[in-house]
Specification:
This protein has two domains: 5-275, Spore Coat Polysaccharide Biosynthesis Protein SpsA, Chain A (Alpha-Beta Complex); 287-363, no CATH class. The protein is 34% helix and 23% strand. It contains eleven helices and 18 strands.
Length: 364
């Protein structure tokens, strides 16, 4: 356990590239997508509690997901911060940091998304070094060792070492880069100085809020007012007054990118397996395959493949799913919607969802 360390778990978003499995009312973090018997949210909490202690994790989620989250994590109500509406990651993380500052003072806080899959012992080691960098006044990212020149992720450049004896791998961050093209991504990997940016950040609560006060003063001031009222009878009234007007911006843009330019960002490389389960192609990689490369999430007895290799099938309607003569097909069968695509076009599911949003919004 890391003394005086707390963790924030932002649990939001609809996971539209995993539709119809993930929907606004039951997003991907509430599902067991790996067949482990634990949902993504539960697995996230499982790996954080040994670092924070039993009372050290706070989940930030939408009001419509509050009861489902409480049912899955068995936390006290005070550990679930509910947002009236989505306002992007800066509002969620900033609110939780401000509430923790009100409750406990200037503790070190880490933010870890509820919908990532992480394996390996290196996670705890990376977080421990990031905590040391945060104690030294930096906002520290935990970067992910890139396994290929992906164009789906942002990148963080690791500069010179910070020189911290308790965090020997921590390095200064000169810059963050948004999702690059394939040629640029390959060039990054060739240097050995770039990591994937998984938006895992560790910081002292006061340090983060001081930076927010400089860089986004209106957002800072409103979040501090909301946090001051959070554990009082005035919470509902203050939320009603302020929340809808909060700036909607990601913490990467609000804090990480400008702070890197100022020299205040650090990164610790994470030596662990990481997946953001961003689409069905990624999901397939997480599941065991049979002799034909078929992967099933659910009851294998409901799936039959004939002269078909590399299929991903999720049988969720009670029907038997038969795949004949189609390689690398994705079949997601639910009681009210059926998706058929290929692993190569898995990223395009989001576009289909946008069409459904106009034509059949009740399916989202």
């Amino acid at each position: 356990m890391i003394p005086l360390f707390r963790a924030i778990v932002p649990a939001g978003g609809a996971g539209t590239r995993l539709w119809p499995l993930s929907r606004a009312g039951a997003p991907k973090f509430l599902h067991d997508l790996t067949g482990s018997g634990r949902t993504l949210l539960q697995a996230t909490v499982d790996r954080l509690l040994p670092l924070t202690g039993p009372d050290g994790v706070v989940v930030v989620t939408g009001e419509r997901h509050r009861l489902a989250v409480l049912d899955q994590v068995d936390f006290p109500e005070s550990a679930i911060l509910t947002e009236p509406s989505p306002r992007e990651s800066m509002a969620a993380i900033g609110l939780a940091a401000a509430v923790l500052l009100e409750r406990e003072g200037d503790v070190v806080v880490g933010s870890f998304a509820a919908d990532h899959v992480i394996a390996g012992s290196g996670f705890a080691d990376a977080v421990a070094e990031a905590v040391e960098a945060a104690r030294a006044g930096y906002v520290a990212a935990v970067g992910v060792t890139a396994t290929g020149p992906s164009t789906a992720f942002g990148y963080v450049r690791a500069g010179e070492p910070l020189g911290l004896s308790a965090a020997p791998r921590a390095r200064r961050v000169p810059a963050f880069t948004e999702k690059p093209d394939a040629e640029t991504a390959a060039g990054y990997l060739a240097t050995g100085d770039y990591l994937w940016n998984a938006s895992m950040y560790v910081f002292r609560a006061q340090v983060l809020l001081d930076h927010l006060a400089r860089l986004r003063p209106a957002l800072h001031d409103d979040l501090r007012r909301i946090a001051a009222a959070w554990d009082t009878p005035d919470r509902a009234a203050v939320l009603d007054e302020l929340w809808g007007g909060l700036e909607s911006v990601a913490i990467d843009h609000a804090i990480a990118e400008p702070l890197a330019a100022e020299g205040g960002m650090a990164v610790v490389p994470g030596l662990f397996d990481w997946h953001d389960v961003g689409d069905f192609a990624t999901l397939a990689d997480l599941l065991p395959a049979d002799d034909h490369g078929t992967r099933v999430l659910g009851d294998p007895g409901q799936v039959l493949t004939v002269e078909a290799r590399g299929a991903l099938v999720v049988p969720g309607s009670g029907r038997t799913v038969v795949v004949l003569g189609l390689d690398d097909v994705v079949v997601i069968d639910t009681p009210d919607a059926l998706l058929v695509t290929t692993r190569a076009r898995a990223q395009e599911v989001k576009g289909a969802v946008e069409v459904l949003r106009r034509r059949r919004p009740e399916l989202l």
